[in-house]
Amino acid sequence: MGNVPRFILGLTMAVLLPNFVVSFPTKTKIDTSTDQSALQALKAHVVSDPQKILETNWSITTSVCNWVGVTCGSQHQRVISLNLSNMLLTGTLPPQIGNLSFLASLNLMNNSFHGSLPIQLANLHRLRFIELGENYFYQEIPSWFDSFPKLQYLSLSANKFTGQIPSGMFERLPKLQSLNLGMNNLSGNIPMDLLKCKELQFINLESNRLEGILPKEIGNLTMLRSLHLDNNRIQGAIPFDFPNLLNLEQLNISFNMFRGFIPSTISNLTSLTILDISANYLSGEIPSDMFERLSKLQDLDLSLSWIRTSIPMSLFKCKELQIMNLANCALGGILPKEIGNLTMLRSLDLSFNEIKGNGKLLDAVLVFCCLFQSVG
Ligand SMILES: *[C@@H]1O[C@H](CO)[C@@H](O)[C@H](O)[C@H]1NC(C)=O
Ligand SMILES: *[C@@H]1O[C@H](CO)[C@@H](O)[C@H](O)[C@H]1NC(C)=O
Ligand SMILES: *[C@@H]1O[C@H](CO)[C@@H](O)[C@H](O)[C@H]1NC(C)=O
Ligand SMILES: *[C@@H]1O[C@H](CO)[C@@H](O)[C@H](O)[C@H]1NC(C)=O
Ligand SMILES: *[C@@H]1O[C@H](CO)[C@@H](O)[C@H](O)[C@H]1NC(C)=O
Ligand SMILES: *[C@@H]1O[C@H](CO)[C@@H](O)[C@H](O)[C@H]1NC(C)=O
Ligand SMILES: *[C@@H]1O[C@H](CO)[C@@H](O)[C@H](O)[C@H]1NC(C)=O
Ligand SMILES: *[C@@H]1O[C@H](CO)[C@@H](O)[C@H](O)[C@H]1NC(C)=O
Ligand SMILES: *[C@@H]1O[C@H](CO)[C@@H](O)[C@H](O)[C@H]1NC(C)=O
Known about the structure:
- Helix content is 7%, strand content 23%.
- The chain is mainly beta and 376 residues long.
- It is elongated.
- It is a single-pass type I membrane protein.
């Protein structure tokens, strides 16, 4: 583009996203026509644009920096962010996308992009944010996802990725905070190199076909706030013999093949608000002190376990509980009147157990719980 000023820069400048700093080599001649031709190539690979968003807006008579979904660095006028989320676009990604060499953020979420990811994406070493969720990308996850030393956020969720998570994928992603590979068709084990991403806070691998065990070293990820592994085929014991996950707020490992007892060490996960370990092959008893320190718990699901004990009194210390599902647990004993202490409760399911109650107790429950699912 002739009208774009050429900058000779030896600067470091902050760009739109927090902590995003792009440093320039000195005396770089800035050429925005590269970005323009890369985006034109992308537009040419969009085969359906029912809202005519790119069709009408991405006009070569204006600078790419004015195009919808495109953000440029304020001084160097290079594309730093591409956000085409929710635009009903159908198409593929052309190799030229790898020429957007200043790109820090790529968001194509909720479109119908398909095909495989071009290897040229691996040239975009400045990427910190990659959101490709809710599309139809397929084939295996490429092996070059270790090319982004600054990557903080990666989501490939709800696509058609298949095969194993590539080994080495997480070797060189030291800044990764959020990972979502959920709702694909991934098989194989949870890769051990994930444990090298010490800054991980959110892990979502739900609804794949992952197997193997959950390595106990997961407890070394001390920043972890959310772990969703539900709806896979993960086996072995629940390895929560670690005291370090003090920030863990959400744990969902339901619908897997975990065996053995519920570890009493869960009681050390004192930040938990969501705990769902339902639909595994857990047996034994609910540890009596399990809930002693889980005072923030809001949503508890132990259903479809073979627990065969009575409800521990420590459960009634969870004053924030809103949803409690203990259905199909082979629980016995009586329903303690302290259930009435859980004044936030709006859903309680105790069906298919052998819990004894009496009319009075159940009435009390009804009074205290505003929404009642079933009491068996
Ligand atoms: C493209 O969209 C942007 C942002 O919505 C707007 O500012 C600009 O005027 C549009 N350009 C054209 C040519 O429609
Ligand atoms: C992208 O656009 C959507 C709206 O379509 C917006 O919600 C989101 O915050 C934008 N930003 C990024 C970084 O993706
Ligand atoms: C996906 O995008 C379409 C079109 O903008 C929108 O109607 C729909 O609500 C979006 N879906 C999600 C899950 O955000
Ligand atoms: C952009 O990318 C394509 C394909 O990767 C390449 O052939 C082309 O030379 C690149 N450079 C420019 C300036 O478009
Ligand atoms: C999932 O992957 C397996 C191979 O690992 C394949 O046989 C199967 O068809 C895939 N399923 C879907 C829905 O793509
Ligand atoms: C996890 O931490 C323990 C000590 O807390 C250490 O011995 C072990 O090597 C660590 N494992 C990994 C995979 O980082
Ligand atoms: C846990 O995962 C299962 C299976 O994917 C899902 O049905 C359930 O709603 C999740 N539990 C919570 C508390 O979000
Ligand atoms: C809970 O953590 C403390 C250290 O914070 C440790 O001494 C104790 O053994 C842990 N309890 C369980 C049941 O793991
Ligand atoms: C339940 O509430 C009553 C009355 O407020 C209180 O005396 C009792 O200690 C509570 N029980 C538990 C297990 O929290």
